[in-house]
Structure formats: structure tokens, C-alpha cells
Recover the amino acids of this structure.
């Protein structure tokens, strides 16, 4: 699978990932940042691209939650 095909698959999950993040954070800028990090995380997983659409969505949600949790723990440690 070439990079253009991988980018297309990631684009298919972009809005969904942002929606998940926004639902949990309720802040546009932080949601955008968390969604970007989550998509980069799943992009590093070669199995992601050969998984079913449902499997990909589950991985996107898990990555989004991980990124949000990580960002919040980083934020708490700064305070």
C-alpha cells in the first residue's frame, strides 16, 4: 500500500476522530491537537491500514482517548 492510499484512509477517519475528541474535551483547539496526535499514532501502526473499517474506528477512538489522557496528565503536572 502506498502513502497516498494510507493518507486517504486516514482522511476517512479525520472528522470522526475530531468529533470523538471534541465530545470529550469540548474545546476546539485542544480537540484539533488531540485528533492530530491520535491520527499520527494510528498512522504508525501498519496493521491499521489492513484492518476492517470497524477495527480502524476502534483504534482511532482508543488513540484519541490515549492522546487526551496524556495531554491532560501533562497539563496537570505543569500546574
Amino acid at each position: 500500500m502506498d502513502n497516498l492510499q494510507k493518507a486517504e484512509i486516514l482522511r476517512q477517519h479525520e472528522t470522526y476522530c475530531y468529533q470523538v475528541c471534541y465530545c470529550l474535551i469540548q474545546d476546539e483547539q485542544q480537540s484539533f491537537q488531540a485528533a492530530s496526535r491520535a491520527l499520527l499514532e494510528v498512522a504508525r501502526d501498519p496493521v491499521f491500514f489492513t484492518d476492517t473499517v470497524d477495527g480502524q474506528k476502534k483504534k482511532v477512538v482508543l488513540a484519541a482517548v490515549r492522546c487526551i489522557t496524556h495531554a491532560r496528565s501533562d497539563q496537570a503536572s505543569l500546574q
